[in-house]
Amino acid sequence: MKDFKYNRGLVLIIMVGLIASLMISFARHGVEENNRQIDLATNYEDLLELADREGLPAEEVMAKAKEAGITSLAVYDTTFKKLNANGKATAIAGSELLGSYHSGTLTDPLWRQLVAEGKIQGNEVYIVGHDARTWQELKEDVPRRLGKDRVQLLKVGDEEVMAAKAHFESFVKMDIGMPTDEMEAVNKAGFHVIARPSNFNKCTEDDVKAVFKRLDGMDISEVVFSGSQVLGANKSLQTTIDEMKARNLNMGLIEGVTQLQFYKQDGMEEIAKGIGYDKIVRLYAIPKDEQPKLKISTAVERWANTDEERNIRIDLLRIYDKPSPNMSLMETNMQYFKDTHDILVAHGYTVGPAGTFASFYPSKYLRALVMAGVAAAAVLYLSLVIPALNTAVKKQWLLFVIFALCAMVPILMGTGAKIRVLAALASANLFPALAVIFQLDRIRHLRDKITLGFGKMLITGIIALLVTGTLSYIGAAYLSASLADTEYLLEFQIFRGIKLTFVLPLILVGIAFLQRFDIFDGRMDDTDGVLNQLKKIMDMPVKVKTLFVLFLVLVAGVVFVARSGHTSGMPVSAAELKFRAFLEQALYARPRTKELMIGHPAFLMAVMAFWRKWPTMIFFGLVLIATIGQGSMVETFAHMRTPVFMSFMRGIGGIVLGAGIGAVAMMLVQLWQTVISRAKERKSA
Known about the structure:
- The protein has helices spanning about 10-35, 45-55, 60-70, 80-85, 95-105, 110-115, 130-145, 170-175, 180-190, 205-215, 235-245, 270-275, 295-310, 330-345, 365-385, 385-390, 395-410, 415-445, 455-485, 485-490, 500, 505-515, 530-540, 545-560, 575-585, 595-610, 615-635, 645-685; strands at about 35-45, 70-75, 90-95, 125-130, 150-155, 160-165, 190-195, 220-225, 250-255, 280-285, 315, 350.
- By secondary structure, the protein is α/β, with parallel strands linked by helices.
- The strands form two sheets. Strands 1, 2, 7, 8, 9, 10, 11 and 12 form an eight-stranded parallel β-sheet that branches.
C-alpha cells in the first residue's frame, strides 16, 4: 500500500497563513458590521401619482410615507411632460400655434401678431412660464440642453416666451434640469433627497457646476445618476469628482439586472475611484415588470435578503399600482413601506442616509503570509498525488520557494491583483480537495483493523463530515483573505473563477483517489497509479447501457454547473423555490442545495460504502459527489459582497442539515439491506 506522508513544515506554513487569513477576515467582519444603515427610499413622483389616484393632498401622502418609515425621496430632472401637467410651464409646438392661427382659434392678439410677423415657426417649440422660479431655472437649463444657438427669448406683450429649435415630441420627454421646488418640498416633508441628475450632450465643466450649484442648500442623502452616463461623461468627469468631494456627497450605483455588479454607466468607475470607494453605495430596485407579480410579503422578504446578502444600502421601493384585497391603494403601499421598514429593523439595521464601507485594504504583510500559505498548500497537494515528489522533501521545499516568491513579491511591492485572484482560485480548489484526501488517507489504514456497527458507523461518518468541513473552511478563510478589500465588497471587482471551482476539486480528488485505490478489482487495495487506470478505462469495452448511464452523468454535470451563478438561464422548479424560501425564513442563511441535498449526504453514503465494502467504483463515485459539498462550502466565500459571517453560517447550516439528510439516507439503506437479507434467509430456509 502506498503511504503518502504529509510534510509537517508545509502544514505549519499553512497554519501561519491561516492565522493571517483569519486576522484579515475578522477585520473585514468589523467593516461589514459598521455598515448597517439603509436608505429606505421611493420616488417623489410616485408619491405624487399615488396622491392623484387616491384624490389626496400630496402633503398627506408624504406624511404617511414618512410615518411608514421612508427616509429619502428620489427627485429626477424635470421634463416638459411633467411641467405641462403641473401647470408651472407650458411647451407648445409651433405647428400647433400656426394651425390654430389659420383655423381662427388663436384669439390672443399678441400671439396672432407674432404669427403675422413670421416669428412663429412650425419646427420650433415655444415655452411659457407660469411660475417665477421655474421660469428662471428653465432659462438656465434649456439653453444648456439644446445649445444657446437653438434658443432665443421673444416678447409677447409683457411676457417672455422662449423659442427653441427642437422636435416637439422628443423635447417634451427630454430631461431639463433638477427642480429646486421639488427638492425643497421633499426636505420640507422631512425626507432626504436622492438627487438623480442626467448627463448633458457634450457636457462641459460649467454644466456640471450648474447642476451641483442647484443642489446647494438641499439635504442630499446620495447622488444616483440617471441614464447610461454619469454627469460629466466623458470630458468633464474631474469636475464631477471635485464637486462631489467639495460637498462630501455619496454616489449610489444601481445593481445590474443579473444582480451582479452594476448597471453600466459611462464614467462610473472613474467617479468612484476619484471620490473614493468609501463614498459608494449599492442601490437595488425590484424590476418594474416583476413587482406586480409579487405579493407584498414576498417583496418585503426579498428586501431583507437583498440587503443582507448583497450589501445593498439604498432600497428604492416602487409603488404598487393595484390595491391588495380589502385595502385601498394608499393602504396597500403604506403597508408595503411599513412592513419593509419593520423587517429591516428586526434584522438589526437602522434607516437613514445610506451607510458606506470604510476604506478597507489589509496589510500587505498579512496578505503575503496568505500567499505563502497558498503556495504551501499547492506543494502539499502535489506531494500527495506524485509518489516521487512525496519522498523528495528537498524538491518540495524548492517548489515552495519558487511558488512563494512568485506569489509574495508582487504583493509586497504593492501590486499583485492577478496573483490575488490566482490565490483565491487555488484556495477554492486545493483546500476542499486536501480535506477529502486527508480523510481518504485516514480510512485506508483502518478498515481491516476496525469493525463498526451501524450506530458507530453513523457517528463516525458525521464526525468525519464535521472534520472535513472544518478543513475545507481553511480554504474559505484563505479565499476571503486573498480578495478582501472595499472594491470586492462593493463588487467593482469580482471573482471570475466560480464555474471552474465546481469542477476542478472533483478532478483533484479523482487524481488522488486513483493514486490510492484500484477502482476495478472491487477490493480497495493498492493501485498502479492514475495513468494506468485511465488507460484501463479507455480500453474498456462499452455497452449501450453504459453509454446511457454516462450520458445521464454528463447531463447531470451540465445542469450542476449551469444552475450555479447569476447568468445561467437554467430554470429552478417552483417546488425548489418554495423550499428555498422556507430555508431562508427558518435559518440565518439559506444553505446551498448542492451541499445539503447532494454533497453532504453523499459523504455519509461514502462512509457506508467504505465500511460495508461496496464495490470501489461506487465508493469512488460517492467520494466525488461528496467533494461537491466541500467545494461549494468554500466557493460560497467567493461572493465577496455577501458578509463573511453570513457565508460562514450558510456552510454550517448546510453541514447540519446535510448530515441529517445523509443520516436518514443511511438508515433507509440499512433498513433495505436488512429486509433483503432476511428475505434471502427465509428463501434459503
